[in-house]
Request: fold
Amino acid sequence: MATLERLGISAKAASYYAKEGWLVRLGHGVYAFPGDQLSPHGAVKFLQTKVQGLHVGGKSALALHGVQHNLAMRETLVLWGEGRFVLPAWFTSLTPARYVSAHLFDWPNEKFAESTVTTPPGETEGLRVSTPERATLEMLYQVGTYEMLEETRNVFEGLRNFRTDVAGKLLACCTAVKAVRLFLKWSRETGLLDVEQLYAQFDIRVGSNRRWINRLPDGSLLTLKPNE
Reply:
């Protein structure tokens, strides 16, 4: 609606134009021109103006960076943001999507937080997407809920060229013990990063000395040691 108002079209006028078929009403205060082909990424850019911190995250972000494993025909688009938000019906009609607002990081400063969001080459200009390092921790956070363990491990094995300094800083401010421990465990097993170097350079949170144990939806038991 803000765009229409800048063009001198009031809410009342927009409603009239929609009734006459000159505009298409997608939702409350959201309109399109007849025949417009809405793209999911274009729609995400619009939502970025409405939701603080909104960005493509997790496995969806990794796919945009070229890291993917046996993606389904209509893979669910994972969006992260700050605060509660319900994706509007007009958006989810474009693409299957889910929204996550978990407090995953205690950011040391806003500059670092912004540095972990980028636009991959070839993608829609201005589209906010997690860097691979941030996206990986977002993906691991949802293991056992929305992400299956085996599929996530397969994606993890496809990771390349991780930046140690960025990964270390993210691990140091990550609030999810499960995500941190799983990242360190799989990094050791795949050789993605030198875990001992990470421990030496960064104050990484691994929680208590107890094992983290959880029964996953598929019935398997996930056990993560504090310093695995």
